[in-house]
Amino acid sequence: MRTIIQIFFLLLVALVVTNKELADSGQGLPFLSEASIHAICPFGGVVSIYQFVTEGSYVHRIHDSSFVLMFLVLILTLLFGAVFCGWVCPLGSVQEWISKMGKQLFGKSYNHFVPVKVDQALRYLRYGVLIWVLYATANTAQLVFKSVDPYYALFQFWTGEVAASAIITLILVLLASLWIERPWCKYFCPFGAILGLISKISLFSLTRDPNTCIDCKICDRVCPMNIKISILNSVRHTNCIVCLECSSEEACPVKDTLLLSTKLKVENRVGEQGRK
Amino acid sequence: MKIKKMTLAIIIIILLIGGIFSAQLAGLWHTKGQPGGPGPGKGINSQQVTGREKESRNIDGHTTFKDLLDMGLTEKEIADVLGDGVFEPLLTVKSYCEDKGLAFGQVRINLDALIATD
Hints:
The complex is a heterodimer. By secondary structure, chain A is mainly alpha-helical. Helices cover 55% and strands 4% of the residues of chain A. Chain A has a three-stranded antiparallel sheet with strand order 2-1-3. In chain A, helix 2 crosses helix 3, helix 2 (42-55) packs across helix 7 (125-140) and helix 7 (125-140) crosses helix 11. The longest helix of chain A is centred in the first third of the chain and has 23 residues, at 2-24. The radius of gyration of chain A is 20 Å and the shape is globular. Chain A starts with a helix and ends with a helix. By secondary structure, chain B is an all-alpha fold. Chain B folds into two domains: 1-30, no CATH class; 35-117, no CATH class. Helices cover 53% and strands 2% of the residues of chain B. Chain B has helices spanning 5-25, 51-55, 65-70, 75-82, 93-100, 104-117; one strand at 2-3. Chain B is elongated. The chains are: A mainly alpha, B mainly alpha. At the A-B interface, helix 1, helix 3, helix 4 and strand 3 of A face strand 1, helix 1, helix 5 and helix 6 of B. Strand 3 of chain A pairs antiparallel with strand 1 of chain B, so a sheet runs across the interface.
């Protein structure tokens, strides 16, 4: 089901940005939006907030639609966590599909090449990227991130307007996906950094029932983001993309043990266990 | 309360796609121009362009205002097409159009036509 949703959003974005290029040549499809890639990027709303608050205008190339999408993704994240990353983001989907080749090539070693301590340290990089992007965008009122953004390069590489640095970033990210699952999401994505922080207070989260868990650690092995799910009761990890690959509907062999659920239920159960 | 994968998928589609349609109905969905409105076609010279002129392609996404001046257009002619005489020479025409909410395709056709008649 998740793959269908991922393909749907990938095709939707590809169609809209292709139609924009066609429309510029006077050949666009009338029933399809002619929005640019920037106009349908929710992160565009985030980088424009400072200018919007201080001057009432948007950063160059950002429009009302970016703000609307930013709010819709914010609502989704407050409800369910970073589902945008796991279900919607086309760049995340492409990395994930390439990772299937990596799994075929390297088997169980796949996604475990980076030493744990290095991996943990690298995960802070995306906050650095986020601070740099927000600061530089606020200072210049330009989309500075565009010059290295692999998402932009993924959908616009054929237009000849993408900076070489962005295309190189995209190629490196796609290549790295053969060894590491979702390397851009884990280490560099500034939008994922924000969504991960917001997901800490989401209404629903992945919850593990310690009463029925058999400690098989399958959940740990299937997690694309290398989260140690088996030691958590409520997975409110900043890297969780809510893909639900570990859940009782997918990998977990025990029914109703790993579920997307409200926090209250697990806390109550843990409370009950404590009283026993 | 728990949520199944299928339910989550449906909620994501409804919230995102439904949200976009709702924003369109409420007049909040603008993919061009600055806050509060699209500003489409503002100041565009509405001269008719023939099929032959359409084939002439001097301008693409990389063309800057300096390039236009080098092609022989005057600042006044460019300003007539854009409806605004304020532009940075090194800015691309496409970027300018996206920023101002102008249809680049139409602006390009009009500028191409001017170049062809020069």
